[in-house]
Amino acid sequence: MKSRTGRQRRMVVMLSSLMICGALLAACQNGTEESQDPNGTGNTQQESDGTTVHFTEDKGTDGDNTGGDDTSASGNSGEGTDSESDNGSSGEEQDSSDDGNGATTEDPLMEKRSISALQTTIDAQSVVTNAESMTVIVNKQRSLPEGYEPDDLVEPNVPFSFDEPHEKRHMRKEAAEALEKLFAGAKADGIELRAVSGYRSYQRQVSIYNNNVKTKGQEYTDRVSSVPGRSEHQTGLAIDVSSPSVGNVLEEVFGTSKEGQWLAEHAAEYGYVIRYLQGEEDTTGYVYEPWHIRYIGTDLALDVAKSGLTLEEYFDEANIKL
Ligand SMILES: [Zn+2]
Q1: β-pair partners for 240
Q2: 56-100 confidence digits (pLDDT tens)
Q3: By CB distance 3.0 to 4.6 Å, which of 58, 222, 225, 276 could disulfide with 289?
């Protein structure tokens, strides 16, 4: 009995909301819309019974005075009053989309983090299951599938530190395009960068690793160099960058140069993060590399930069809250 009453009340609220929406739309179509809300935070209207209905806009879109977006505003109109009149129907489930809270907790960044969480993107052999994703995490504990090679490698049109053709001039298409924009942004700020090393095939990582072991020893090699299959360069999403001001070397000195500082400050705007941060060897597995940048997309990169987390921390399920 109670729930029926609640349902009826809700129907009334929905109907009256629809009528209000209709009236508003008609007003807009006639070109008579007036700015009721100079702050642009949403229109309000007094109903006959004295309740106030709020027409809220989506977060992130400014107040819209053009009249073009009113249909989206009307979609939320019923929810403001619903919560007040709906106390008796808490047991109903079929109307859950209409519950009084109205608030959607959707967070697109958290969704992306959740999809790419470390714990759900790895198989029992420690091979990643999302090799082709822009958010794939490869490190000393996480391998790419055997023989993995991206199928969209291209050569970004940026200055390199060498002239000859080479596989390391390549990156995946989306990362390459972002790199071009990054270099253009740097140039506009009077910053001269050089691309040094991008894509690295499994086979080439084998020879680099073996050569490092031979010349620098196993322990040192494991701190600075990846076991084949576990190098981020093999994803086609990472590239080492330096500057003529430091002789295009890949050393810590680049981090203190004005070019290295520009890169740390602006990389995220172009979808890149400084992958191996200072003092984070315990979580990333690598010493500080101010020259190694990794593409993950602009929205995530900006969020990562803001968080100050390494990618290992950022994509750890423990830090993802939906
Ligand atoms: Zn690198």
Answers
A1: 197, 292
A2: 333 333 333 333 333 333 333 333 333 333 333 343 334 433 444
A3: 276
Alpha-carbon distance 143 to 141, whole Å? 7
CA of 146 to the centre of ligand 1 (A): 20
Domain 108-319 has CATH 3.40.190.10: no
**Beta strand spans in 95-251 (E):** 153-154, 171-172, 194-197, 238-242
- Measured in Å, residue 316 CA sits from the centre of ligand 1 at 22
Distance from the CA of 155 to the center of ligand 1, in angstroms? 17
Q: How far is the CA of 275 from the centre of ligand 1 (A)?
A: 9
Distance 240 CA to ligand 1 centre (A): 5
Q: What is the pLDDT of residues 221-273, one digit of tens each?
A: 988 888 999 999 999 999 999 999 999 999 999 999 999 999 999 999 999 99
Chain mean pLDDT for the chain: 77
In whole angstroms, give the CA distance from residue 154 to residue 167: 10
Distance, CA 237 to ligand 1 centroid (Å)?
10
Q: What angle is formed at CA 204 by the lines to CA 203 and CA 206, rounded to 5 degrees?
A: 65
- Ligand 1: distance of its center to the CA of 212 in Å? 15
pLDDT value, residue 166: 97
* Cα 290 to averaged position of ligand 1 atoms, centre (Å): 9
- Cα 198 to averaged position of ligand 1 atoms, centre (Å): 8
Instruction: Report yes or no: 92 and 7 within 8 Å, Cβ to Cβ.
Output: yes
3-class DSSP string for 96-131: HHHCCCCCCCCCHHHHHHHHCCHHHCECCCCEECCC
Q: Looking at residue 104, what is its pLDDT?
A: 59
Distance of CA 289 from the midpoint of ligand 1 (Å): 8
> What interface predicted TM-score (ipTM) does this complex get?
1.00
Q: What residues does each domain of the chain span?
A: 2-98, 108-319
